[in-house]
Amino acid sequence: MRKPLRLTLLATSLLTIAAPSTAQFKDAVGNQPPVPADVIYVHGHVSTPAGWQEAIAVSGSTIVGTGSKADLAKHRTATTKVIDLEGRTVLPGLIDMHVHAVDAGLQANNCIFPQGAAMATAIATVKACAAKARPGAWIEGGQWDGSSLGKAKPTAKLLDAVAPANPVVLHDISLHSVWVNSAALKQAGITRDTPNPAGGVIERDAKGNPTGVLRETAAIALLNKVPAPSEEERIAALDRATHAMLAQGITAYEEALMASANAKIYAALADRGRLVQYVRTCMWDNDQDLIAQRQIYARPRLDLGCVKMILDGVPTDAHTAAMLEPYADADHALGPERQKGSLIIDAPSIIAKITRYDAVGLTVKLHAAGDASVRAALDGIAAARKANGGYGPHHEIAHANFIAPEDVARAAQLGATYEFSPYLWFPSPPVRDVVTTVGPKRMERFTPVRDAQDAGARVVMGSDWPVIPSMSPWVAIETLVTRQAPGGSAEVLSPSQRVSVADAVTMLTTNAARQLGIGHITGSIEPGKQADFIVIDRDIFAVAPTQIHQTRVLRTVVGGKDVYSAQ
Ligand SMILES: [Zn+2]
After folding, report:
1. Is 193 domain-assigned?
2. Considering its fold, how many domains does the chain have in total?
3. Which of 153, 326, 413, 558 has its CA 20 to 30 A from that of 231?
4. Cβ atoms within 10 A of the Cβ of 98, count?
5. Cα 475 to averaged position of ligand 1 atoms, centre (Å)
6. What is the DSSP string of 63-99?
7. How close is the Cα of 536 to the center of ligand 1, in Å?
């Protein structure tokens, strides 16, 4: 006779679940007085998910209200500070999904001339740097390109004339070649008798003497002679980069390639209380020790939840991006593989690695420039979904300059993200080279931001600073809309891929926050989220798009605190 009893008990408990008493929850949902605000910002033009609003109330680090000044009066107490925004536009803090921040900070101390500089500018810049440098100290800088320098070829002699007492090394815009002076050649032990290293070229004059230009592995060998910065210099560099980004309105970012040495630097800056932004770092797949020890370096705003895999190179005359079809200017004497570029990691390893990282919840950021490597990345993500189920991280395909039309929508189906880079969506010196290598047909859909968005994929922006010279998100937003050079240009790059200002801002805010896994904390200005926002000097939705690149940030707020304010 036990069965009926059990059934009765079961029925009773089902009834309890179906009709719970709310009495026990009354305290939790009872009417609470409005939260007192520490600060109320008024008279603003504030972009919120509920449309344009006038005011924001902040308590501690949290937004507790948006609306009109009258709506928020209930949060005001005797101690609430009221800040008049004088009609200025307020946007959520911006998020850059591809930064090499320590390198960027180190380069800020370098000897820099603008990309596209002529010979006279480059030489004058080096002369000024040499005047300030300690005798014997290395001078590192750039970035030059042969066509902009003009008729005169870059030679060691030209640099010797202005910097006789310092070794000088200048990067080119592709970062595959260097131009050095005689002191640098001497320190590297390069003479007329030095043979070309495997995979590299020491350029020589008619007499066989090195000219001062070194390419590929020959350039790397020389760069290895430049003394590495100390840990303190690296911490200071990250600090510099942090504040340069805050001044542009960047309140969170993704460090796109990190090895153990820089993991220590991030943790050290966080421990000093100076890591202001939320940062997710992508640990280099080649550094398995770091991946195994990652939680040692994790801090409250420092997430080591991402791994970087580099699948190919660049679609310039180096022909290292992996393409489905041969390069337009491919040397037909070469085999088919060399004509199309090739994957750095073979396809079965890509699948195995992504599947393994996905299984432990690590987001994988895949450098994929060519359409063959984008396809390999998507295939890898598809395999991971099949093995681990559909609930893994949204893996990121970085750069994605060429995506086969049939592959564009796969990212949406697979839950993957396209991360595009500004300097590869408007006419810029690096792009000119690409036009020659792939031909006009493939350039029609170069860096296909619009196609990816229309296909329903998550799209984010990553500047790739300092591989490119500026991380200005304002240049990024303007050129997403115009696909012209900043300020407008006759030349338009792949105009079919233009998007609206609103779409561009979404890519740099809500999309990126969700991609970082912090969409519940930041990315929009609304109650419940962290007070991460910026006040700017113009309404980028109202001005001509060609003015957006000149936008100045007046105030940057992270977690309710002023972390940058313009003079
Ligand atoms: Zn990068």
Report:
1. yes
2. 2
3. 558
4. 28
5. 18
6. EEEEE-TTGGGGG--TT-EEEE-TT-EEEEPEEEEEE
7. 28
Single-letter amino acid, residue 328: A
Cβ partners under 8 Å of residue 79, min gap 6:
36, 38
Share the mean pLDDT of the chain.
Answer: 92
CA 464 to ligand 1 center in whole angstroms? 5
399 and 350 co-located in one domain: yes
- My answer on whether 184 and 267 are in the same domain is no
463 CA distance to ligand 1 middle (Å): 8
- Provide the CATH number for the domain around residue 161: 3.10.310.70
Query: What does the pLDDT read at residue 2?
Result: 47
CA of 400 to the centre of ligand 1 (A): 12
- 195 and 253 assigned to the same domain: no
- Name the packing angle between helices 473-482 and 501-508 (round to 10°): 140
Q: How far is the CA of 497 from the centre of ligand 1 (A)?
A: 22
Which region among 266-270, 307-311, 421-425, 446-450 has the lowest average model confidence (pLDDT)?
421-425
CA of 367 to the centre of ligand 1 (A): 8
Q: And the tokens for 245?
A: 């980004």
Alpha helices in 150-230 (DSSP H): 156-162, 182-187, 217-223
How far does residue 521's CA lie from ligand 1's centre (Å)?
A: 26
Q: Return the pLDDT at 1.
A: 41
Both 324 and 423 in one domain: the answer is yes
For helices 231-247 and 260-271, the axis angle rounded to 10 degrees is: 70
pLDDT tens figures, 30-54:
678 899 999 999 999 999 999 999 9
Q: Which domain holds residue 140?
A: 104-223
CA of 489 to the centre of ligand 1 (A): 26
CA–centroid distance, 380 to ligand 1, in Å, is: 21
Distance 296 CA to ligand 1 centre (A): 24
Are 210 and 235 part of one and the same domain? no
Output the CA 257–ligand 1 centroid distance in Å: 7
Q: How confident is the model at residue 25 (pLDDT cuts 50, 70, 90)?
A: low
Same domain, yes or no, for 401 and 477?
A: yes
Q: How many angstroms separate the alpha carbon of residue 97 from the centre of ligand 1?
A: 10
Question: What is the mean predicted confidence (pLDDT) over 317-344?
Answer: 84
Give the residue from 195, 223, 251 where a domain finishes. 223
| Same domain? 258 vs 219 | no
Instruction: Judge whether residue 19 has pLDDT over 70.
Output: no
Identify the pLDDT of residue 24. Answer: 64
- 64 C-alpha vs ligand 1 centroid, how far in Å? 37
* Tens-digit pLDDT profile for residues 112-145: 998 889 999 999 999 999 999 999 999 999 999 8
The rounded distance, in Å, linking the Cα atoms of 467 and 98 is: 10
* Ligand 1 midpoint to CA 466 (Å): 8
Tell me the CA–centroid distance for residue 193 and ligand 1, in Å. 36
Residues 207 and 242 in one domain: no
Give the integer Cα–Cα distance in Å for 372 and 402. Answer: 8
Q: How far is the CA of 323 from the centre of ligand 1 (A)?
A: 19
